[in-house]
């Protein structure tokens, strides 16, 4: 029996080597066929100050463009309502426009519609800051609506077709020294 094992040892070693090479080659091919994809997910976290903050509620992103809804049958512009959360340790929050609001036609800048913005029942002005929200509620966090609409609703019917755009710029102020 010892003669048979010794006589066939080179053959056995060759068979083991061939099998191991075959296994390694097939394993290498499966590694080469693997595809990879990287996924980057940008994350943001904004923790508002306990002293003063103004933020959108219900998933609105104030930094993104908001589309105004035009009703072509009634030829009117539906108001855009953005829910806000106001908070001021002193309870005092004032707001004003940083300029007039206009939606201007991209192709013909002479075509435009004047807009207005209100928070709660206070129409914002560019000439002076106005108190908004209720002081006691603002101390704990007050939910109010920012409503953007046509200044003169009848003027919307006179607009020519096209793409109109503009910006609403609002300055919020809170006196944290009084807190």
From TrEMBL:
InterPro entries: Fimbrial_CS1-type. It holds the Pfam family Fimbrial_CS1. It comes from the Bacteria. Residues 1-28 form the signal peptide. Keywords: Signal. GO terms for cellular component: pilus. The keyword Signal applies. The keyword Flavoprotein does not apply. This is CS1 type fimbrial major subunit. It comes from Candidatus Regiella insecticola LSR1. The lineage of its organism: Bacteria, Pseudomonadati, Pseudomonadota, Gammaproteobacteria, Enterobacterales.
């Amino acid at each position: 029996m010892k003669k048979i094992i010794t006589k066939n040892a080179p053959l056995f070693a060759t068979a083991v080597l061939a099998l191991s090479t075959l296994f390694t080659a097939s394993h290498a091919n499966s590694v080469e066929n693997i595809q990879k994809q990287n996924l980057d997910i940008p994350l943001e976290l904004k923790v508002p100050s306990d002293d003063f903050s103004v933020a959108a509620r219900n998933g609105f992103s104030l930094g993104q463009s908001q589309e105004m809804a035009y009703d072509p049958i009634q030829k009117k512009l539906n108001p855009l309502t953005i829910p806000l959360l106001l908070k001021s340790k002193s309870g005092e929050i004032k707001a004003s426009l940083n300029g007039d609001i206009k939606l201007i036609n991209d192709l013909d800048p002479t075509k435009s519609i004047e807009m207005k913005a209100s928070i709660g029942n206070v129409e914002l002005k560019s000439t002076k800051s106005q108190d908004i929200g209720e002081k006691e509620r603002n101390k704990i966090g007050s939910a109010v609506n920012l409503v953007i609409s046509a200044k003169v609703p009848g003027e919307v019917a006179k607009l020519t077709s096209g793409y109109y755009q503009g910006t609403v710029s609002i300055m919020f102020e809170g006196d944290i020294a009084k807190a």
